[in-house]
Amino acid sequence: MCGLCGWASFGGAPVERDLVARATATLRHRGPDDEGFWSAPGVALGFRRLAVMDLSAHANQPFVNSSGDVALVCNGEIFNFRVLRSALAKEGYSFHTDNDTEVCLHAYQHYGPDFVSHLSGMFALAIVDLKRRKVLLARDRLGIKPLYYRIDQRGISFASELKALLCDQSVVPEIDPLALNLFTVQDAVPAPFTIYRGLKKLPPAQVLEVDLDRGPQSARHSVYWELPYDEFSSSATPEDLAEELSALLHEVVENQSMSDVPLGLFLSGGMDSSSVLALQRASDQRPIVTFTAGFEDPDNDESSIAAELSKHFGTEHHTLRIDRTLLDTVDQVLPLFDEPFGDSSAIPSYAIAAAASRHVSVVLTGEGGDELFGGYLRPRDAAGLRWACRLPSGLRRTLAAGVPKLGPLARMQRFRLPNWALIASLHHPVVDPLRRSILRQRWQCPTDELIATYQPLRDRLQQRPPLQGYFDALLSRYLPDDLLTKVDRMSAAHGLEARVPLLDHRVVEWAARVPAQLKIRGNSTKFILRKAMADRVPGGALRQPKRGFGLPSGFTEATAMRQRVVDLAKQSDAVADIIDIGSAPEWDGATGWRALALATWIVRVHEQGIDVSNGVVE
Fold first, then answer.
1. Distance CA 194, CA 208 (A)
2. Rounded to the nearest 5 degrees, what angle is found at the Cα of 483, between the Cα atoms of 481 and 485?
3. Quick one: which of 45, 240, 300, 291 has its CA closest to 159?
4. Over the stretch 6-44, which tens digit does the pLDDT of each residue have?
5. For 537, which DSSP code?
6. CA distances for 170 relative to 79, 98, 157, 158, 527, angstroms
7. Other CB atoms closer than 10 Å to residue 401's CB: what's the count?
8. Number of H helices, E strands in the chain
9. How far apart are CA 589 and CA 53, in angstroms?
């Protein structure tokens, strides 16, 4: 976990050092251990480091090659760096650190821009190549690490968080109404959008190259990785696949357990984090500290199971009790995203990250298991989705419009996925109530414009069987835009590095090839994962039903949420300018929470002097 930023001008104009210093300072929470800068004519980089591998000063960033014409900053971890290092050493490259950043630099020198396809890990990085007169930005395959950028006639700037880019006084923040509408549908602003016009997120698995001599028209995006579409052979038995998955997960967790600082694990008591713990203990007997959030609501609480697992695997265990006082942290937590973010699980995530940071600097998590192996859909919901997708498109639209609470559709909508979730119809009546219940009419963008942003996703879904398309969409939209954004910001807020071994790209590729009937089979969700872990994880954890990790329903009672938004509207006229307060009596708890997240963001930016009315749709 680190923070990076940089500016490069097209005309060679000098970059103000104070600007880079201010921007780097905003990222201090991401890297409390060291601060570094590098500059050359027309370019400058800033970096904040959280030291977890090779703790020496030799591994500080920015990292520059021996001739001084290539500089690199990287946030994240490259878990195969020692394998790459060995291969590059045979090609004549010398190394002075036991650190992945130096390996990335030499990999770029050896392989060119395609070097990212050789990296296995979680990363967002930037390279300035003075000899080629290029700036290259890259983000990992799943979008685990964030990267924002801006390109205009003067140059390109980039950073780990939006707040760093806003340090540039030439940036006049204007709300992008389309991004605002997307937030109300998806609970997060999806890549490549941000809430501000002109500021972008680099999508996962993409490289952006810019030629500093040719200007903004030279910007070129390329995709270096996509999910495979071919399924495993029908001759592969469940037993064979389970054994193969077990071996792969063992290797991945072992690789991601490497650390020169104390290691921890977020242990929910559910199947995914339990599997990661079992695999970690099978290959590494170093002390490990586990952390669990305990809830008052028994339907959400898995702390007793987590405590049993801790005893079984011999961990130092800590349980954080989540109570209603946690809502008092809303004003601290939501602004950390720099744009509206409506996933309520950010609140307990913030608390558990704070607790973990007092003991360790690195944690493993179980994120990704549900999205890869079918943890959200119950078997009967999966059957309903298969049935619905066989219907003629016209009838599907009628059902989506007229029966919005139909079985599996309501369950999928609960996870705030884009509108493919309602039988992949993206039908207008499905989209509009989600945003019209929150936004004032003058902020609502044309529905066709909103739906068009999902067309690439629809095109991919049409190539997949219904359930495989469901998993594909979870990976491409929900994970990077919502879940992984939450994990990154909440851990970074406390100088904590969170690793997600189940989202190693090799595991993701493997899971994408598993037929849907081996993910949801009979009465079992995540069938193949349960089978793979049967000899490693105690049976109680394997049999646990899926429980959500978020604020229990009693925390987000509709009346209380509505009143909080009304109170914020009294505090700032800007809230009532964007949010339709008159609709508040109609909101349920989930809608009220989404409106509260938006209102909290509006108040925050308005206090910072940002004009939140200048992006209005007329």
1. 17
2. 60
3. 45
4. 999 998 899 999 999 999 999 999 999 999 999 999 999
5. S
6. 38, 40, 11, 14, 53
7. 14
8. 25, 17
9. 44
Quickly list DSSP for 117-132. Answer: GG--EEEEEEEEETTT
The whole-angstrom separation of Cα 604 and Cα 618 is 24
Q: Which residue, 292, 253, 248, 289, is CA-closest to 270?
A: 292
272 is written with which tokens?
């995914």
Q: What is the pLDDT of residue 436?
A: 82
How far is 449 from 33, CA to CA, in rounded Å? 45
What are the structure tokens assigned to 571, written together? 């505090």
* Separation of alpha carbons 205 and 223, rounded Å: 6
Among 252, 302, 304, 305, which Cα is nearest to 279's?
A: 252
Amino acid symbol at 142: L
Give the Cα separation of 55 and 482 in Å (integer): 32
Of 179, 192, 152, whose CA–CA distance to 168 is shortest?
152
Structure tokens that stand for 169 in this block: 């006084």
How is residue 202 annotated by DSSP?
Answer: P
Residue 138 pairs in a beta bridge with 125, 207
Query: What H or E segment, with its residue span, contains residue 427?
Result: none
CB 350 within 8 A of CB 329: yes
- How much is the pTM? 0.92
- CA-CA distance, 400 to 411, in Å (whole number)? 13
Instruction: Report d(CA 479, CA 476) in Å as an integer.
Output: 7
Q: Return the SS3 of 355.
A: helix
Closest to 269 measured CA to CA, from 544, 550, 548 = 544
pLDDT of residue 602 exceeding 50? yes
Distance between CA 375 and CA 141 in Å, rounded? Answer: 22
Cis amide prior to 192 (ω within 30 degrees): yes
**pLDDT tens digits, 485-529:** 999 999 999 999 999 999 999 999 999 999 888 888 877 889 999
Asked if residues 373 and 529 have their Cβ atoms less than 8 Å apart, the reply is yes
CB atoms within 10 A of CB 582: 9
Residue (of 607, 596, 540) closest to 574 by Cα position: 607
CB-based contacts of 169, cutoff 8 Å, min separation 6: none
* Cis check: omega of the bond before 433, within 30 degrees of 0: no
Angle at 529 between CA 524 and CA 533, to 5 degrees: 110
Detail the DSSP E strand segments found in 246-298. 263-266, 288-295
